[in-house]
TrEMBL record:
Natural source organism: Leucosporidium creatinivorum
InterPro entries documented for this protein: Phytyl_CoA_dOase-like
Stated name of the protein: Phytanoyl-CoA dioxygenase
């Protein structure tokens, strides 16, 4: 029996969710049928295309306001010296992005919240303070983004525990990059991990992650599972079961990928200590991983952007424009549930 190395960040188990019947015997007549069958779903038009375009322009304005020379109508300014530091995979976890006004604007959209309320059969929800994604097509100043198939869930905790999400803001077709999933991969996840339990694992920063090797990917291929690039229109919400192997591909067409990651969970899945931590994170404009319970704050030592080997002085960890939250959005922080039972 192989003894695997303990990751630097080990977090508690969260309860299995019972909001969906994966037996296939319960027809829902909506996106939940796709989650049951395929492990992912595209919920159409949770935001109007007009509002999605407005958020895109807010993203552009935010990038321009760094004062580094980026101009939305000048492709020659799409380079590191004109932009904040953007991860190879398009992630922006710093610069206050998790709590920027447009980020919270997307999280607060009624159609987004309604989809998760239907999924979990409750209005009492919390949301992750996660990153945004800005991926420009055909950047030559970044390393090539190769497939990095993974699950954002502990292989030793195989149940249905989390549904990840993102709101897509620009057209996202075949050549526009974005989410790639192993269709139906959630159904074979436990069998896979039982089969590969003794295989040496790649380094992972947290127990709630698993990186696939070529041996495992070949095994899944032999089982008949195929990768699908998920296309979406502006304003669509993409959801996926965390047990589904997935990765993001870089855009190769003409459209910039603008995405806000939106992961919600019933507040009942969080402890009071975690709600207190979310309060501290919110009040100090700190981000955390996709787990809405907030038990994985971003490790700033690892995610702090560096320019020419030095910490970027433009990163203050503060949003340029602080969000103004209504009552329903404020509940998503978890703060109103401190000291109460939802």
């Amino acid at each position: 029996m192989t003894v695997h190395a303990t990751p630097p960040n080990v977090v508690r188990n969260t309860p299995n969710l019972d909001c969906i019947d994966f037996s296939g015997e319960t027809p829902y007549g909506d996106f939940r049928d796709d989650i049951v069958q395929n492990g992912y779903a595209v919920v159409k038009g949770v935001i109007t295309q007009e509002r999605a375009e407005d958020y895109v322009q807010q993203f552009h304005q935010w990038l321009e306001d760094f004062g580094l020379g980026y101009k939305r109508d000048d492709p020659s300014t799409i380079k590191e010296e004109c932009l904040p530091i953007i991860h190879q995979k398009g992630l922006i976890q710093a610069y206050g992005a998790p709590h920027e006004s447009f980020t919270w604007g997307v999280r607060s959209e009624p159609g987004v919240i309604d989809a998760f309320a239907k999924l979990f059969n409750t209005e009492d929800l919390i949301v992750s303070f996660d990153a945004v994604n800005v991926s420009f097509p055909n950047r030559r100043d970044l390393p090539e983004l190769k497939p990095w198939a993974h699950q954002d869930q502990d292989p030793e905790r195989p149940g249905f525990r989390c549904v990840q999400g993102l709101v897509n803001l620009n057209p996202c077709g075949d050549n526009d990059g974005g989410l790639v999933v192993l269709k139906g991969g959630h159904r074979i996840s436990q069998e896979y991990h039982d089969t590969f339990r003794d295989e040496e694992r790649e380094f992972r920063w947290t127990n709630e992650m698993y990186l696939f090797k070529e041996t495992g990917l070949e095994w899944l291929k032999e089982k008949g599972y195929e990768w699908v690039k998920v296309n979406a229109e502006p304003g669509d919400l993409i959801l996926w079961d965390s047990r589904v192997p997935h990765y993001n591909a870089a855009p190769k067409g003409d459209n910039v990928r603008f995405v806000v990651y939106t992961c919600y969970a019933p507040v009942s899945t969080a402890t009071q200590e975690e709600l207190l931590q979310k309060k501290a994170l919110f009040e100090n404009t700190k981000g955390h991983s996709h787990w809405p319970q907030g038990f994985q704050p971003f490790v700033e030592h690892f995610v702090a952007p560096k320019r020419n080997g030095e910490l970027d002085p433009l990163n203050t960890w503060k949003p340029r424009k602080a969000p103004v939250l209504g009552e329903r959005a404020y509940k998503l922080t978890g703060i109103p549930y401190i000291g109460t039972t939802a």
